Amino acid sequence: MFSLFRRPQQIKTSLTKTRTSFLTRLTSLVAKNEVTEEFWSGLEETLIGADVGVETTIELVDKLRVRADKERVRDTTRVQAMLKEELLALLRISAPQSPISNLQSPYVILIVGVNGSGKTTSIAKLARYYKAQDKKVLLVAADTFRAAAIDQLKIWGQRVGVDVVAHQPGADPGAVAFDAWQAAKARHADCLIVDTAGRLQTKFNLMKELEKIARVLQKNDPHAPHETLLVLDAVTGQNGLQQAREFKKATPLTGLILTKLDGTAKGGIVFAIAKELQLPIKFVGTGETLDDFAEFDAQEFVDGLFE
Length: 307
Ligand SMILES: Nc1nc2c(ncn2[C@@H]2O[C@H](COP(=O)(O)OP(=O)(O)OP(=O)(O)O)[C@@H](O)[C@H]2O)c(=O)[nH]1
Ligand SMILES: [Mg+2]
What we know:
Blueprint: H1 10-14, H2 16-31, H3 37-49, H4 54-70, H5 76-91, E1 107-112, H6 119-131, E2 137-142, H7 147-160, E3 163-165, H8 173-186, E4 191-196, H9 203-220, E5 227-233, H10 237-250, E6 255-259, H11 269-277, E7 281-285, E8 293-295, H12 298-306
Parallel strand pairs: 1-4, 1-5, 2-3, 2-4, 5-6, 6-7
Antiparallel strand pairs: 7-8
The chain binds guanosine-5'-triphosphate and magnesium ion.
């Protein structure tokens, strides 16, 4: 939809590392041209190697075997085509992007994730994304745990040209969020994006803090936050999936931002995430600059793996 934001082939380009390793292995399997036991176990290894995950891989390959039997498929290239179809089907839960409704002003997006996953950078990218749609965006520095985190968000705010609401380091993140919501209302902002801490003394504290921020926002608007997006670093692969499970237990997530797709050969994690968490991937980070951000597109993603 907002094509001004998407460079052609952006997702495909960011998948270079994943494709190089996945497609090389797949191509040599398919070249043998025989659907044998060895072929199936090779396919399993290839998928697990791309970090599709053991559970998701086994289910996928079982499904393909049943289909191949039923449709009397002997040809490996046909199996490859079936694999592409099944991978795409796994991603079909991906919801449409998050259109900002004028009815929910401000539209509140809470950004959560472990430290270093790319939250603050993604917030800057997201701010720019909505700004490009003529939305007025306000950022909230609710990661008050690290002094540098507040400064970092302010610098991004300046670069993107959006205001940042911040308190002193160590301040109560709930109080910052409360004030920021009031400021957003007074300034007629369309969208409020909340940066949160990725690390506190304990994981328990972190989850409690996220709950508290949400609760405080709800004092202003019972429907806030309208979105809670988990930022996940694709490089961390299956560990990222474990983090996602923990966040999902603590906060009602509405979707994911998958960062650093450009830095990993394990882009197959996308399938494990979709399958296991049943959460849509809404955006992907494809590099370190503001431009390196795209709406997730299942078709482009799967095409990018095979071409
Ligand atoms: N290559 C690449 N690097 C990224 C991407 N997104 C973020 N990064 C880098 O990842 C590092 C951490 O990003 P931050 O945005 O500071 O992460 P954070 O989650 O806010 O970290 P904390 O505030 O410590 O919790 C930075 O060096 C970013 O430039 C991406 O899509 N691709
Ligand atoms: Mg940060």
